[in-house]
Amino acid sequence: MVEFKEETLTRVYSALADPTRRAILFRLQHQEARVTELAAPFAMSLNAVSKHVRVLETAGLVRREVRGREHFLALEPASLEAASAWLETYRQFWSQRLDRLETFLHDKRAEKKPSRRK
Fold it and tell me: Could you give the CA distance from residue 108 to residue 1 in angstroms, rounded to a whole number?
């Protein structure tokens, strides 16, 4: 069984709960960007977008690299992989349960079918 660090998962899922942060991650999946570039499509201040970016950095979802006076942000997929692995354990659990239910129902239908008389 995969072990998950509770604190890491809490930070990741808390960060992912906000649509603005998810939109930022979506934009960063294609290429790195400056905070000002990330802020452009949002109807909020640069400071507000910076706060969202800090939450993403704290969750380990975004990496910042300073080049001269510019701050470039890039997606850090490792934390997303951990969150996805956590969900996968529950997807497998429910998938197995549903498979067993399907088998049970199939067997019950087979028991109820009347036998053909010749």
Answer: 33
